[in-house]
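User: My notes are a mess, but here's the protein and zinc ion's SMILES. Can you give me a structure?
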Amino acid sequence: MPTTQTVNLTLPTPYVNRLLHLAGERGTSLSELLRARLGLVAGVCQACGCTDECGCPDGCSWSDDNENLCSRCAKFLEGRDQFGRLAP
Ligand SMILES: [Zn+2]
Ligand SMILES: [Zn+2]
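Assistant: No problem, the inputs look usable. Here's the predicted complex:
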């Protein structure tokens, strides 16, 4: 199972243009800018907030290359939909 997935977003053109302008100003890419806006900081689990220094009580490791999801949360989210509900 892949640990990352590419999603397509539909956004208002003026907003995208603004983001592209900001990305150009900062010398970064649109995807990096969006990742930053989503708070996707490497080394912090996006589901529970654990880090290398402060992991889950029962121990965990990174489940993706970007270090945005720990193994414990990846296991929890497996088989669930985007709202965290158990898939039928
Ligand atoms: Zn986690
Ligand atoms: Zn964890």
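The chain has a mean pLDDT of 87.
User: Great, I'll file this with my notes.
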